[in-house]
Design goal:
This protein is α+β, with helices and mostly antiparallel strands. The chain has three domains: 205 residues, Beta-Lactamase; 70 residues, Orthogonal Bundle (Helix Hairpins), CATH 1.10.287; 159 residues, Histidine kinase-like ATPase, C-terminal domain (Heat Shock Protein 90), CATH 3.30.565. Helix content is 52%, strand content 18%. The chain contains 13 helices and twelve strands. Strands 2-1-5-4-3 form a five-stranded antiparallel sheet, sandwiched between helices. The protein has a five-stranded mixed sheet with strand order 7-9-10-12-11. Helix 2 runs antiparallel to helix 3 and helix 10 packs antiparallel against helix 12. The longest helix has 36 residues. The protein is elongated, with a radius of gyration of 33 Å.
Length: 441
């Protein structure tokens, strides 16, 4: 049985006894039956929302559920005295705890003093310092959340805010605090003690994607603006001071052609990245000879290697099959080997090794150039990230090559491992795990 079903069953069982009394005036029985119907409808909505993920509406419905349960419990308490009042209060809280436990998102309930009275397992996992009877501020070090709680207690209105923290890990939550009064009578509600249901919605991934999108647009605009500014400058020069200087025009046109090529490469890479991201979740199904891919790439890049006074050495190039997209794999290894030739040329050699292991196939591209500082390694596959911006632009880099590599390898369920030390070159290893059936064979 699913968690929402358990919650619904528990809460309905909680109120069933109310309907079993026979010595109750018909008008009162009718009112209590109406309350049962309202409660059942509310609980059904709670369960549907919990299953559908629309958890932002749930705190308000908790308040409605509390009111419905209290409407049922209060008449019984009036008929049966203090003992029944105590049992009714316990019943209400048990029902609320059952509903809170059914939420997929972290939920915390506070009393009128701002102290924690209940929470679910998701809240404890997200906020380990939570404890019954403790102030929420012990677990949530956020002035915004504390102020939201104070505003709810002061005004009795729903309050929303965001909670961010950077340690021990970066996280962001949307926080919605909803007041709840344990009272069935609207006329008496103003004097009832307020409790607060707080829902924490983890939006870390959404905020990270939003920042990446903003950074991407800003970086792409900058990368296109630079060559465009250069083109405008040379056009003005050709139309003005160099209008009658054929030699200068020839030189400037060559530079303009290179800037146009740079913009073309950038646009091509942007389009390629967009296409790959769209189908990243679709695993390729072709059988591709990886040795053939590497041989083709090495042959293609040999003229560039000669120009850079670098030799490309290969080893282990024997027949090896992997499941993949041939054109995309060519792009991966063109990028890795071309980078090794361009940026590691001071070492004079680039080694490419293909290894067919028991559990995985791996390809390692190693150069013997200046190496990469440790602080740069985690960010190499970010869009537009460059270790040396000037050198990258000078050598025709767009800053998108390794981002393309990462997304292509994600589609192939492969991994990129980067190892480097300053002064000792760098190695980029691509690992293709073998299917379980291959391992068993």
């Amino acid at each position: 049985m699913s968690r929402p079903s358990i919650v619904l069953g528990t809460a309905l069982d909680m109120v069933a006894a109310t309907q079993q009394e026979t010595q109750v005036p018909p008008a009162r029985r009718w009112r209590e039956s109406a309350a049962v119907g309202a409660l059942a409808a509310t609980l059904l909505i709670v369960c549907v929302l919990a299953m559908s993920g629309a958890s932002f509406l749930l705190p308000a419905l908790v308040g409605a559920t509390v009111t419905a349960v209290a409407a049922l419990a209060r008449p019984r308490a009036e008929r049966h005295g203090v003992a029944e009042i105590t049992r009714s209060q316990e019943t209400v809280r048990a029902g609320i705890q059952a509903i809170v436990s059914g939420f997929a998102d972290p939920v915390v309930v506070l009393d009128s003093q701002g102290n924690v009275t209940m929470f679910n397992t998701q809240a404890k996992a997200a906020l380990p310092q939570l404890g019954i009877g403790r102030p929420l501020s012990f677990a949530v070090r956020s002035p915004e959340v504390v102020q939201a709680v104070e505003r709810v207690l002061r005004e009795g209105m729903v309050a929303e805010t965001e909670f961010h923290e950077k340690v021990p890990v970066e996280r962001s939550f949307e926080v919605r605090a909803t007041p709840v009064r344990f009272d069935a009578s609207p006329a008496e509600a103003t004097s009832a003690a307020i409790e607060i249901v707080i829902l924490f919605r983890d939006v870390t991934a959404a905020r990270r994607l939003e920042r990446m999108r903003v950074d991407f647009v800003a970086n792409a605009s900058h990368e296109l603006r630079t060559p465009l500014a250069s083109l405008y400058g040379f056009i003005e020069t050709i139309e003005g001071p160099a209008k009658n200087d054929a030699a200068a025009q020839t030189r400037f046109l060559a530079i303009m052609r290179e800037q146009a090529r740079r913009m073309s490469r950038l646009i091509d890479d942007l389009l390629s990245l967009s296409r790959i991201e769209l189908k990243e979740h679709v695993h390729p199904t072709q059988d591709v000879r990886l040795d053939s891919v590497l041989s083709e790439v090495v042959d293609t890049l040999t003229p560039l290697a000669l120009e850079c006074h670098t030799k490309i050495g290969v080893e282990g190039i024997s027949r090896v099959l992997v499941t993949g997209d041939r054109d995309e794999l060519i792009r991966v290894f063109e990028n890795l080997i071309e980078n090794a030739v361009k940026y590691g040329q001071s070492g004079g050699r680039v080694d490419v090794a293909l290894v067919d292991g028991e559990r995985a196939v791996s390809v390692t591209v190693r150069d013997y150039g200046p190496g990469i500082a440790p602080e740069h390694l985690p960010r190499l596959t970010e869009r537009f990230y460059r270790v040396d911006v000037a050198e990258s632009r000078q050598k025709g880099g767009t800053g998108l090559g390794l981002a393309l590599v990462k997304h292509i390898l994600n589609r192939h369920k492969a991994r990129l491992l980067v190892r480097s030390e300053l002064g000792a070159g760098a190695s980029f290893e691509v690992v293709f795990p073998k299917p379980a059936s291959d391992e068993a064979a």
